[in-house]
Amino acid sequence: MPTYILGIESSCDDTSASVLCDGKVLSNLIANQEIHKSFGGVVPELASRAHQQNIIPVVNQAISKANIDKNQLNAIAYARGPGLLGSLLVGSSFSKSLSIGLEIPLIEVNHMQAHLLAHFIEDCGPYKPSFPFIGVTISGGHTQIILVKDYFEMELIGETLDDAIGETFDKCGKILGLPYPAGPIIDKNSKTGNSIKHTFTKPKVGGLNYSFSGLKTGFLRYIEKETKINDNFIKHELNNLCASLQKTIVEILYEKVILALKQTNISRIVFGGGVSCNSGVIAKFKENESLENYQSYFPKFEYTTDNAAMIAMVGYLKYQNKDFSSIENGAKAKYQF
Fold it and tell me: Among 320, 313, 314, 319, which residue's Cα sits nearest to residue 75?
């Protein structure tokens, strides 16, 4: 008998629902919230309200597009955390109610684990990463290095001590006058810029941890200094600034990940999260595979950002182990491995 899993993702500002059948995506719908662009970042209260408006039609459309009846669902998987508490509460409350109504199991999912396990979705290709591997989750809210021994045996071995990598892209982009989210725009502009035209300081942090706040502050001071000399500095140097900034951020990321490989004697790197589609990140890690003797795995573009297919995939894996959740478990803004 086929196993149908409904996945629900509401950790930040995207309301997403997906139906998987035995690891194959039948539907994966995402409702974006454009309202946050005018504020230069996600406003938690507005995000949770939008989730309340979107969740029922998105779930209905996901089930309809999957061409199944809701009574065929075997379980409901939802993102318990980490994320914005108000947003998570909308998804978790809806999932619990539907689970009770349909009398089917409820499965809680760690959103960050799901970013890595998205690689095991059937349409991600025949070459799946084997265990163990080094997981690298890079997004607007997280920068983590994880030792992954099995589907659910993961150990956090490095993380940012302040700003996340995606947050750094966006905040530096705001300094340049770019709209939110600035990360994709910086990536696009960097393609026609000179990446060695400007130099920015790399923060020095011990072990496998990261720090991006110093880079952000140094970038701000540099822009302030140059614009006092030339009012049109940003306009004239925008692409060069984007290329130089991206190169610096990618090098900071790369150095720690390579250190993690050497310390663990592992030769596989698996990426997840919105920043894993950054062209600079992909190019840096792909071009150095032979040099450092490792293999890197990047998710399909549609599974890089927050999406319910990755939640449903983890739900399917947990369903096979009968790893079900209690409706008494609440949403968790900070949800550790």
Answer: 319
With tokens 């399909």, the residue in question is 300
- Tell which residue, 278, 206, 208, 286, has the closest CA to residue 248: 278
Q: Please give the C-alpha separations between residue 324 and each of 142, 226, 315, 317, 321, in angstroms, as whole numbers.
A: 26, 57, 9, 11, 9
Crossing angle of helices 213-229 and 233-264, in 10° steps, is: 160
Q: What is the pLDDT of residues 21-41, one digit of tens each?
A: 999 999 999 986 554 455 456
Residue of 106, 74, 82 whose CA lies nearest to 93: 106
Q: Establish whether domains 4-119+304-320 and 130-300 are of one fold.
A: yes
- Distance, in Å, from the CA atom of 11 to the CA atom of 17, rounded to the nearest integer, reads 12
Which single residue is written with the structure tokens 């690298």?
Answer: 136
**Distance (Å, rounded) from C-alpha 92 to C-alpha 94?**
5
Its CATH class, for the domain covering 4-119+304-320, is alpha beta
Q: Of 99, 7, 97, 20, whose CA–CA distance to 59 is shortest?
A: 7
Pairing of strands 75-81, 24-31: unpaired
Domain ranges of the chain: 4-119+304-320, 130-300
Q: For 237-293, how does the pLDDT look when each residue is reduced to its tens digit (9 = 90+)?
A: 999 999 999 999 999 999 999 999 999 999 999 999 999 999 999 999 999 999 999
Q: Given this model, what pLDDT does residue 34 score?
A: 57
Nearest residue to 118 (alpha-carbon basis) of 321, 302, 275, 319: 302
The arithmetic mean of pLDDT across residues 41-69, rounded, is: 86
CB 97 within 8 A of CB 26: no
If one looks up domain 130-300 in CATH, what number appears?
3.30.420.40
Task: Give the residue with greater pLDDT, 7 vs 141.
Answer: 7
Task: Specify the long-range contacts of residues 177-181, CB closer than 8 Å, at least 24 apart.
Answer: 177/234, 179/37, 179/40, 180/36, 180/37, 180/39, 180/40, 180/41, 181/140
Residue 36 has what pLDDT? 45
Helix (H, G, I), strand (E, B) or coil at 6: strand
